[in-house]
Each structure stands twice: as structure tokens, then as C-alpha cells.
Amino acid sequence: MKLLLYNLEHNATEQLSIGFRKAEWLPNSTKSNHTSREHHVKWIHKQTFKTLNDYSEEEVSLRLATYKKIIVVRDPLERLASAWLDKFVITPERLGRFGFVRRIRRRLESLQSHTLIDELSKINEERADNDPKRVSFREFLFAISHQMERSQHWLSFNRLCAPCKIDYDFVAHTDTIASDIRLFLKQNNITANEDVLPKHQSRNVNNGNVFKDFYGRVPIDEILPLQKVFQKDFDMFGYSFEEDLAKISVGKTRG
């Protein structure tokens, strides 16, 4: 719900509008387009939203029984690309690196397993930049598949939102967030100011660009381990790992 409130406030869910090639290196002309992000990031991290852990068992039971509950989900691979772009590229350029970026970088550098070192060396050899502190997209996927760092930004919805324990009244998808939110409000007789609702606009995220521009550079054998990590999300929310792989394969053939 914290993320939903952020999206309603800033209309930020609708697009992953910057392409991989622009985002990876962020030339100065591109950076200037993201000055408003500084306000967005500061705003959301200053909010003190309560979670169920802040209530007693009786209060939790009351809320789960009487409150309307909505979960907003996203294609797992698309979500990973968005998380890396925002948390490892765009925001660090404006506000500095998050703690988890530094922790992942240190863990990548201090691996003791020879197997992991062999796998990671292939990735490091292909790094296209000279910034030793940067976590590339391939390194990020490697860290996620080996569960090096847990964060709400990429932890599976199955583990983050407990859909098997909480009976959600409504499942919204970022692909159709504008219409989904309006339907949820209408079904519950809630009136909202149109200005704060997500706008109806075309999205460039799920039309193959993400799978081509982000995952197209990643060998398939480095993507396959992600299926095990996010399989329950794929199964529960109507997404398909196989369909995503097909889009990636098409993207690779188109260069």
C-alpha cells in the first residue's frame, strides 16, 4: 500500500520510460530529465506508514477481516529491470548509492566459492564501464539469483506480501494500473480526485523493449535461475516465465 500511495501521489507506476542504453550511462543531457525524482525519493522515504507488525494480534485480525485489501503486482523480470534502473543507476546519480548497492558490491568482490567466482569472472570480464563501485545489470541478476541481498524492491511478492495468508480483495497489475485502480475504487464506492489517479497512457515496458534492451545482453543461462526465485509470483499472478524467455529470445535475434 505504501507503493500504491506513492504511485497515486506521483503517477509513477505507468512507465519505465528511459531506455537501457540511455539509462546505463546517463549522459548529462539525460540526467537533467530526472531532477524531479529527487523530490519523489525524499518524499516516499520520509513517510512513516504502519505495517501489520506495528499492531497487536487482535488489531491485525480486525484489519484483515474488515479492511479492503489490494495488492499491486508486476511481471517479475520487468520488476527486476525497473528496480535495477531506479535503484542502481538513476537515483545513485542524483542522491548517491543506497546501502544495499554497496553491500552487493562488497559481496560480489568477496565471494569465496570457486564456482561462483568462475561464474562471476565471465560477467566481470564483459563490464563496459570502469566504475568499480557500479553494479551492472548482469551482476545484479547474479546477486538476485544467489539471494545475496533482500530488499522490498525485488523480494518476491509471495514473500513480501504473503498472498497465501492474506485474502486480498483485489489484485491490480502495473500493466493496467490506471483502469485497475479506478475499478477498485468504483467497486468500493470510493471517490478520488482524478488528478492523483494514474493516467491512461500507453506503456513501453511490456511490449518487448525491456526484454530486448535489458535482458537481450544477458546470456540465457544467467536468466534461468531467476525462474526458481520468482516461480510462485509467475504462477499466482498470471505471468509466464516461458513467455518472457520467448520475448528475450526475439529481442536477441533483433539485436
TrEMBL record:
One Gene Ontology biological process: carbohydrate biosynthetic process
Family designation: Belongs to the sulfotransferase 2 family.
Chief location category: Golgi
Any one GO CC term of the record: Golgi membrane
Listed name of the protein: Carbohydrate sulfotransferase
Enzyme class, spelled out: transferase
Domain of life: Eukaryota
Source species: Branchiostoma belcheri (Amphioxus)
Gene Ontology MF annotations: sulfotransferase activity
